Amino acid sequence: MQTHGAPSSLAAAAGDPAVLNLDVAESVAQVFKVLADPTRARIVYALSQREWCVCELSRALGLEQPAVSHQLRTLRLLRLVTTRRAGTTVFYRLADPHVLAVLQLVLDHIQHN
Amino acid sequence: MQTHGAPSSLAAAAGDPAVLNLDVAESVAQVFKVLADPTRARIVYALSQREWCVCELSRALGLEQPAVSHQLRTLRLLRLVTTRRAGTTVFYRLADPHVLAVLQLVLDHIQHN
DNA sequence: TGCTAATATGCTTGTACACGCATACAATAA
DNA sequence: TTATTGTATGCGTGTACAAGCATATTAGCA
């Protein structure tokens, strides 16, 4: 009672395979929530291009430093970024190529209207 | 003062090309917001598989009918779904393949941990 | 030790929104 | 017309959260 070679555990075990399990849907939604905020999307994209310290991001995005730190904390807890200290300065970099792939896909779609 | 063949209008005209324009970031975020909710993610996935009427979705997702209608309204306003009437019943179907592509990409990533 | 620069965190507030209930609207049948 | 079924909408509420201010923390330097 399985659709031909399709992924197995996405849909409810005894349910319609066209319906995503609630927990799978929640995992999916959690990923998308990261990029569903303009500030985080900009931070993720910037960190995918090169290393940035917090104050650089703060200036480039026109946000208070705590606002940036708050978002970076979110990304850190999700293990999407890595950090490197240089004195009092902390440099951030994107750690997860998957997130960039998803972001890039949507950026491409937007370009083609 | 443009990066080699790279996309042109994504970053601020006079700014760092590694920084997304605020309006571009907002467009990106709007796309991701659609899938950033478990219920909408499940609806989008279900509608990508086949046609569904509202009451079917309501039963399959374990939600009240108005809750489903509210989300379908959101998807309708964004022109992501199309409708077909049959008597009092309205059938919905996914209209935008891009959304499914993005959703599928994340589903695949989740499967590979 | 004290001072300064860079970052992180606690707290608060405004805002967005998912979804429930009640109800309005639409379409078919008797 | 009236009743019934399916869907849409208005309203209210609880919840999540972005970001600001104030402040704590960390690291380097005099």
Order of helices and strands of chain A: HHEHHEEH
| Largest sheet: spatial strand order of chain A | 1-3-2
Q: What gyration radius of chain A follows from the Cα positions, in whole Å?
A: 18 Å
State the total count of DSSP E strands of chain A: 3
Span between termini of chain A: 40 Å
The secondary structure category of chain A is alpha+beta
A few lines on this structure:
The first copy, chain A, is built from five helices and three strands. With 113 residues, chain A is α+β, with helices and mostly antiparallel strands.
3D structure, described in words:
The structure is a homodimer of 113-residue chains. With 113 residues, chain A is α+β, with helices and mostly antiparallel strands. In chain A, 55% of the residues lie in helices and 12% in strands. Chain A has 5 helices and 3 strands. Chain A has a 3-stranded antiparallel sheet. In chain A, helix 2 (38-49) packs across helix 5 (97-111) and helix 3 packs across helix 4. Chain A is globular, with a radius of gyration of 18 Å. The A-B interface holds A 7, 9-10, 15-20, 22, 24-29, 31-33, 35-39, 41-42, 45-46, 49-50, 60-61, 98, 101-103, 105-107, 109-111 and B 7, 10, 15-20, 22, 24-29, 31-33, 35-39, 41-42, 45-46, 49-50, 60-61, 98, 101-103, 105-107, 109-111. The structure holds a DNA duplex (30 and 30 nucleotides).
